Amino acid sequence: MATFRVTIEIGPMDQSRFERIEALVDTGATYTVVPRDVLERLGIAPQFRRRFRVADGRIVELNMALVRMGGVAHFLFHPTHIRQQGTKAALKRLVAVGHELGVQWQTSAQIVEWLERRRSIWQVVEKIGGNWLWRLKAPKPVEGATLLQLLPAEKAQMANRFVYGFPFAQHVETLESENQRVLGQATNK
Q1: Which alpha helices (DSSP H) does the chain contain, by range?
Q2: Distance between CA 119 and CA 49 in Å, rounded?
Q3: All structural domains of the chain with their residue ranges
Q4: What is the per-residue DSSP string for 112-158?
Q5: Which of 69, 103, 125, 159 could be bridged to 98 by S-S, CB 3.0 to 4.6 A?
Q6: What is the Cα–Cα distance from 91 to 14, expressed in whole angstroms?
Q7: Tens digits of per-residue pLDDT, 43-87?
């Protein structure tokens, strides 16, 4: 079994808000343990209970909840490591659990291409007439781009995502050529 650390985002299944945390990944683990205070801040309550046998042989019953997690984990194994006893089985188990959870697997070439597309997006916010306009230009199409528009405090009730307590309007769309979005009425402040 192997362990390593990775930064992930965790949130409720409705994706209304997320919190970024550093996670310790154990390739031999089946479930993820998250500190209670993180779950409470995200409004995630226990949904069911499950029994587990712990290392000393005792049976414990723990609260469980389904959450949405996101992040990028890089798994690099040298052939020498894969030949070590248990590593190949742990890697197969990791892939199987990932498939069960709907993880999207990508090769390093796919990740590099995604990073290049993401970094090539050009954006500008400008005042046109009485409105603020958010213009985005992508030389190559970027599918499933998540756009976060920070909302003023008086419009916080319209937020569909909160990041570090700040209200955002989240939009997921494909960026092709040039996209634009009206952000709101311009004021004389």
Answers
A1: 36-41, 79-82, 87-101, 108-119
A2: 43
A3: 3-105, 119-185
A4: HHHHHHHHT-EEEEEEETTEEEEEEEEEEEEEEEEEEEEPPGGGGGG
A5: 103
A6: 30
A7: 888 888 888 888 888 999 988 887 777 655 555 555 666 677 777
